[in-house]
Amino acid sequence: MFSKEESARLRKEFWTSFGKSFPRKWLLYNTKIKGVAFKFLADRKKAMVCFDIENPDELTNLMYYDQMLSLKSLLENEIPEVIFDNNYELENGKVIHRIYIPHQQKFSIYNKNSWRDCFEFFYETMSKFELFFLEYEDFIKSI
Where is the DUF4268 domain (predicted)? Predict the structure, then answer.
């Protein structure tokens, strides 16, 4: 097991290495929709690319999630492994609407040998996801 300091250092090194390996300005929180963001997630057991809907107003959340559900088949054509989860529970217990693509290969942020595959997964998957969002952005925002 790693100490807190070693763990923090490895996580920082992982994200720094990803940024240097694939330098690009990602959309992430700049969707211009309150409470809607793209995220890269990596921990000791898994990695994923996410589209999180967590506006403070639950009705607004449902409306954005419904907009995305109406585009589900189109998104599945672009990214077949996409998962729609209406009740995704975060580690802190908060429940959000999450649309995500899990990294299918064995991964741990603490295993440097698994980093390169994850970086490539992040780059390819987030690029497709952002492109899809930008193509349908006006429709998604039209609630």
Answer: 10-136
Q: Give the Cα separation of 60 and 62 in Å (integer).
A: 5
% pLDDT > 90, the chain: 95
Give the number of domains in the chain: 1
Q: Alpha carbon of 22 to those of 15, 29, 119, 128: distances in Å?
A: 11, 18, 8, 15
Do strands 47-53 and 36-42 pair parallel, antiparallel, or not at all (unpaired)?
A: antiparallel
Tally of CB atoms within 10 A around 120: 14
Residue 72: domain span:
4-141
* Bridge partners for 87 per DSSP: none
* pLDDT > 90? residue 1: no
| pLDDT (tens digit per residue) in 80-110 | 999 999 999 999 999 999 999 999 999 999 9
